Amino acid sequence: MRMWLRGWLVAGTSVALAAGGAPAGAVVTPDHGPTAGGTVISLSVPGGRLVSLSAGEEHSLALDDLGRVYSWGNGSLGQLGNGQADLQATPTAIEAVGVLSGRGITQISAGAYHSLALDDEGKVYAWGQGASGQLGNGQTGTELSPVAVDASGVLSGKTITQIAAGREHSLALDDEGRVYAWGRGASGQLGNGQTGTELSPVAVDASGALSGKTITQIATDSTMSMALDDEGRVYTWGDHEMLGIDTGQAENVPIPVAVDTSGVLSGKTITQIAAGRGHSLALDDEGMVYAWGWGGPGQLGTGQDESHRIPVAVDTSGVLSGKTITQIAAGTYHSLALDDAGRIYGWGWGGSGQLGTGQEGGYLSPVAVDTSGAMAGATITQIAAGSYHSLALDEDESRAYAWGAGRYGRLGDGQVQSHPSPVAVNLPSPMLMQVFFGDVEAASVTPVAPGALQVTSPPHPSGLVDIRVLGNGAELISFPDGFAFGTSPAVTLHPADATGDTAAVVILTAAANADEAPAASWQRLEDGHWVTVLDDVSATTENLTTTTTLTTTIPDADSAATYRAVFTNPLGEAITATATLSQASVVAPELEPAPEPSPGESGMPGESGESGESGESGESGESGEGQDLPTTGASLLYWLTLAATALALGAGLTLAAKRQRTGTEAD
């Protein structure tokens, strides 16, 4: 199934992704489903969602979440980075070739006539005008395509985390909070204690105000540079008119100094800074804005057209009353602010419509940017101020807006006319989106939001498959092993223990089911290891359940055999409980007791041989009445033998007596 999705695709170019497939933020939910297909999947696809904008003198830049850079406006000095020195009235992609091949760009900054980009490995690239060394490549020529900033000197081994492009110089911040600069330094804007030009990066002086400080943010424009530390303090260097200090002297400062905090900044924690043409802005952690520098056209927002060497508060008595500002931007003689509800305000010079009020005129205090037209209903997440134009980004909807001077096509609406109210940036044509599960195309693909697809899985054999997302036939991203078709096996019948005589035949049975019927095998435990049994094994499948049997025999009396069944499919395995086969235990037979004797039959026979008599006198054995002796299997024989012996003894005694009497009589 194919579906058109508005996004940013470069025809004929491929997107280079880091090893491992999908970039950060890419999500598949759920990530499994039946082999029959029909699972509705939410696919978060970083493939066209705009994440950043930057406005220069006469050109603009945009960055998407796949690390691709787009440019439009005046490219006569190569600032568009597209290999041409021409004008582009709509966004075009900078090809990921040359030094950008395989790089994922994470940050962009548009200067007056040059541009900077930062990749995900902390490397910096530049293009455009380089006459003052602002490209940082050790040269002074113009570059129509990106070149690498020289990393053989102070940047050797450094990981850059932030960049800022000024009019004729550039700044970079590393992951340890140190600042570097290159380009024109006539006003001391490089901060290295010198006022010369540097064709390659140099370190900003950290022996004075920056000693022991960790810088977290940088900003620059024409002849001044700014830095913010992790404790919310601001530092500046360069043109003395914009430093935020009052030295009483007209000398530029080529090393960082701390901005005055004795006035409105007393006790404030600054969270954001911005540098414009002749003025500076700062935002505190309570959403209040401060400004200093030249105030002629009203860019300080105080309600006056006066300049201030030290910070003053921007007027909050009008449209900013009760508002919490979350972002600031400074352009050429105008300023912008964004509040926490996504609404934009502007002040200063507005002769080209750059304040976005619907009128071409300036304001000394903040006014609201018009939201009745193209931006109706939009929630703005980012702003940028150029020389005579402004930009805004609705990141949730991946829509960009522009207003102000339209010459050279810098508004990106396909025109070269100025607009005093926001217009939509003319994004590239929608992409034809396709999603594949392995080699099988999705049953349906439905865009539900920028960078978000709703996809229906197709029928597919069980197992893990890659998900590939294509735009206009070119692969945008992939999710290795992104979806599991089917379920792993589950045992439904375990084999049972068995006993019997040696060599008796036993049939063990086990069963398991899964979304796709699993394969079965049997194993026997031998010397502590499981060994697969190959003979006398069978298996049948019905209703996705596999039933398997093993025919075997009872082992010898001095041993036992232990077996188990194993069920597998592409998603996993299930192992049954063990079954042990052994000899039946030898149990002594239980002897049945002799019948109970009748009354009078349990006495010991008397000498006379008559039953029922006991005792020497031959009298009745009354002493045994009610006390019959227990009879066992051997007692009867014992008493019979004893009786026979007694009879024989009695007969012998009688015969001897007779002989004695006969002998006497003869005498």
Q: What does this protein look like?
A:
This protein has 667 residues and is mainly beta. The protein has three domains: 2-11 and 23-45 and 430-485, Immunoglobulin-like, CATH 2.60.40.10; 56-424, Regulator of chromosome condensation 1/beta-lactamase-inhibitor protein II (Methylamine Dehydrogenase, Chain H), CATH 2.130.10.30; 490-583, Immunoglobulin-like (Sandwich). The longest helix has 32 residues, at 635-666. It is elongated and about 110 Å long. The termini are far apart. The model is unreliable at 1-21, 599-640 and 653-667 (pLDDT under 50).
Task: Please give a handful of descriptors for the protein shown.
Immunoglobulin-like; Methylamine Dehydrogenase, Chain H; six-stranded mixed β-sheet; disordered C terminus; transmembrane helix
Task: Lay out the secondary structure.
Layout: E1 2-5, E2 27-29, E3 32-33, E4 40-44, E5 50-55, E6 59-64, E7 69-74, E8 87-93, E9 105-110, E10 114-119, E11 124-128, E12 143-148, E13 160-165, E14 169-174, E15 179-183, E16 198-203, E17 215-220, E18 224-229, E19 234-238, E20 253-258, E21 270-275, E22 279-284, E23 289-293, E24 308-313, E25 325-330, E26 334-339, E27 344-348, E28 363-368, E29 382-385, E30 389-394, E31 399-404, E32 419-424, E33 431-437, E34 440-441, E35 444-449, E36 452-456, E37 463-471, E38 474-485, E39 490-493, E40 498-500, E41 505-513, E42 519-526, E43 529-533, E44 537-542, E45 545-553, E46 560-569, E47 572-575, E48 579-583, H1 635-666
Parallel strand pairs: 3-38, 40-48
Antiparallel strand pairs: 1-33, 2-4, 4-36, 5-6, 6-7, 7-8, 9-10, 10-11, 11-12, 13-14, 14-15, 15-16, 17-18, 18-19, 19-20, 21-22, 22-23, 23-24, 25-26, 26-27, 27-28, 29-30, 30-31, 31-32, 33-34, 33-37, 35-36, 37-38, 39-41, 41-45, 42-43, 42-46, 44-45, 46-47, 46-48
